[in-house]
Amino acid sequence: MTEFEALEAMFGANQAMHNAFQYWLSVTFAIILTAHLARRHLNRPILLTIGLLYFGAAFLFFVDYLHWLAIMQLIQDPFFGEYATGYGLAKTIVRTGLFLIGTATAEGYLIYSYRQKKEI
Q: Are 31 and 106 in contact (CB under 8 A)?
């Protein structure tokens, strides 16, 4: 693999990772909005269905994210070494943290909305 091909593969994996992250972020905000607007209509089966579907999708996005991260690491090591680690590590930590906290927050808000529906 040439250096150009390595860069092209890295940018492709980064773009795929970024697109999936943006899609996950949109779905997360949709879950929060749904929980807020449909609060009166949330019953246990709907809550479980939405919660499990969202958690399954979030888990799949996270597994894909780890896969693309591994691909990028595999490409970076032999070609770019220490030049790519600082920025990539910070971005990985922030993105992973946001992903985990965002998923937990969306699931928590879904449960919170279900419990608060009696007050409306």
A: yes
